Amino acid sequence: MTEFIEQPNETIRSAVAQSKKIDTIVIENDALQRVPFLLREHFKTSSVFLIADENTMVAAGNGLMKDLTESGFTLTTHVFPATPYLKAKVENADVFLSRLKADGGVPVAVGSGVINDLVKYAAFQINQPYLSVATAASMDGYASAGAPLSKKGFKHTIPCAPPRVIVADLGVISNAPKAMSGWGYGDLAGKIPAGADWLIADALGIESLDSVVWPLVQDDLRTWLSNPAGVVIGDAETSNALFTGLVMVGIAMEIHGSSRPASGADHQIAHLWEMDGVKYEGLPVSHGTCVALGTLTILSLYEWLLAQDFHELDAQRVIRHRRRFDDLAKEIRRSFVSPNITEKALQETRAKYIEDDLLRERIVRIKRIWPGLRKRLADFLIPFKEMKAMLSAAGIATDPADVGIDCAYHRQTLVNSLFIRRRYTILDFLEETGRFDEAINHVFSDAGRWG
Ligand SMILES: [Zn+2]
């Protein structure tokens, strides 16, 4: 066998070296041919349980099965039908989990978001490392340690282990439907507002930046996002950059131990739409599209925020007019239909609600640090208009109306996104400074902004 350098990409090699669970990530042309070798090398196995759907079988699964069979592997498969589309819910992982337990074999996920998350979840239930064959640069979850799946209707990230080995064949990734690469681009773009949210939480002493993890996501982010037109063409170099960015984000989440490096208020909006099962022309609106729209929405809030001067902020006045936990609870009960989501939103909101004394201290701190923080945010952020042009060039929707989300629903989602997670974001900053409504009005003040 000719010598094979498993990881020629230095950025990924050094990140993988810090991962406790990922042995290697192979991103190259013809990477699929490496799979038999990687299974023997990293799993010491010749028995595989392959999970795919009918589309990903055509994209990569059939060729892989042939290679594995010829290489002497024994194979069990579970192939989901192409239609109806596969939902990201725990119940779908249970469909093959009992067979996986009975038949054994190293799970090999051939697919993108949903397939990978289902296998990640199932493999973790039986404490079995798995191999992921990526078929599209469509989301950042390949390397992450959590599976965002819904269980009884509430979507949350279930702690799991990332794959031991990730294989991205650039031929396969570049040939994925162009829309899917656009989704990956949208998911990656969300790291801009997510980073800004973390900067705020750090400046307020709520959640410090992780000096190991922050550069993994943020140092090259603008480079990964620099060629949106290449996403539409599907050129191999752009696919490589996009996939590298997406797995780096996943590794960052694994090392940090939460999705903080990758997910701020933009994702809270996306999660709400996903939990509502938003569809357009009969298909669910993709995670990447939801994140792209969430990203623009939050960047619009940031645009408003950066124009503010908190010099005059009066803690007494803010406290007098603030929404008390009981007010928030009433609004939560009014706003959410599902009892599970309502219950979770109450818990999350309760966890981050602070009493008046603490709020007073926080406001004093905000006034003190705001000039420096504002500058830091302004230097860091990509402005709304620029981001909109980038997303549009990558072929992703930039107007919620493009995917059937009307203005009233968009607004309601933004208002509700405050409640669903305890993680401190711009939404909490606006709520605690008594400026939530004003900032939200700005987002919807000019319909032309979106169209
Ligand atoms: Zn995401």
Count of the separate structural domains: 2
SS class: alpha/beta
Spatial separation of the terminal alpha carbons: 56 Å
General form: globular
Q: Fraction of residues in helices?
A: 55-70%
The biggest sheet amounts to: 6 strands, parallel
> How many helices does DSSP assign?
22
Number of strands: 10
CATH topology of the largest domain: Dehydroquinate synthase-like, alpha domain
Order of the strands making up the biggest sheet: 1-8-5-4-2-3
Uncertain segments are: none
User: What is the CATH domain class of the largest domain?
Assistant: Mainly Alpha
What can you tell me about this protein's structure?
With 451 residues, this protein is of the alpha/beta class. It has two domains: 10-176, 3-Layer(aba) Sandwich (Rossmann fold); 180-207 and 262-449, Dehydroquinate synthase-like, alpha domain (Up-down Bundle). It contains 22 helices and ten strands. It has helices at 10-18, 35-43, 54-70, 90-103, 113-125, 170-174, 178-189, 191-203, 213-218, 221-224, 228-233, 236-256, 265-275, 287-306, 315-321, 325-335, 339-352, 356-380, 384-393, 407-417, 426-432, 436-443, and strands spanning 24-28, 47-53, 74-80, 106-111, 131-134, 146-151, 154-159, 165-169, 279-280, 283-284. The strands form three sheets. A six-stranded parallel beta sheet has the order 1-8-5-4-2-3, with helices on both faces. Strands 6-7 form a two-stranded antiparallel sheet. The chain has a two-stranded antiparallel sheet with strand order 9-10. Strand 6 (146-151) and strand 7 (154-159) form a beta hairpin. Helix 4 (90-103) crosses helix 5, helix 7 (178-189) crosses helix 12 and helix 13 crosses helix 20 (407-417). The longest helix is centred in the last third of the chain and has 25 residues, at 356-380. It is globular, with a radius of gyration of 22 Å. The relative contact order is 0.11. The model has no long low-confidence stretch (mean pLDDT 94). Bound molecules: zinc ion. Residues 139-140, 187, 267, 287, 291 line the site of zinc ion. The site of zinc ion has 6 residues, from helix 14.
